[in-house]
From TrEMBL:
Residues 1-17 form the signal peptide. Belongs to the UPP synthase family. GO terms for molecular function: ditrans,polycis-polyprenyl diphosphate synthase [(2E,6E)-farnesyl diphosphate specific] activity. It holds the Pfam family Prenyltransf. This is Alkyl transferase. GO terms for biological process: polyprenol biosynthetic process. Keywords: Signal, Transferase. It is an enzyme of class 2 (transferase). The lineage of its organism: Eukaryota, Fungi, Dikarya, Basidiomycota, Ustilaginomycotina. GO terms for cellular component: dehydrodolichyl diphosphate synthase complex; endoplasmic reticulum; lipid droplet; membrane. InterPro entries: UPP_synth-like, UPP_synth-like_sf. Its EC number is 2.5.1.-.
Length: 128
């Protein structure tokens, strides 16, 4: 997803700003493992890079007048079929990065964003 950021920033968001801006936009986090493999780096690094890309996209989207809701699909049930090491790394990333996004001056706090985690939340570790 990281490679898409310049394209999104330079093309898609200015087009959306011309209007009408959708009230709801959704992102599916996909391709971080493929990106990591193609860049000869660890899967953990790929997931972290995907988070960094998402953070930049969220900042840009939140600047759009009229956008009311952003959904992020970040973890599917099938992801639990991955190695325990990868699932644990994803859960740790989710936990630490949500805290980061909510910290003072960051995306969630700065824009008064409400976060709702939906789905089979009972499958998530307590720290998430």
């Amino acid at each position: 997803m990281s490679f898409l950021i310049p394209s999104i920033a330079s093309f898609l968001l200015p087009v959306l700003a011309l209007g009408p801006v959708p009230r709801h936009i959704a992102f599916i986090m996909d391709g971080n493992r493929r990106w990591a493999t193609s860049h000869n780096t660890s899967i953990r690094t790929g997931h972290f890079s995907g988070f960094q890309a998402l953070k930049r996209v969220l900042e840009s989207c939140l600047a759009l007048e009229g956008l009311e809701c952003i959904s992020v699909y970040a973890f599917a049930i099938d992801n639990f079929k991955r190695s325990r090491e990868e699932v644990d790394a994803l859960m740790d990333l989710a936990s630490t990065r949500l805290i980061e996004l909510a910290s003072h001056g960051q995306v969630i706090a700065k824009h008064c964003v409400r976060v709702r985690i939906i789905g089979r939340t009972e499958l998530l570790p307590d720290h998430v």
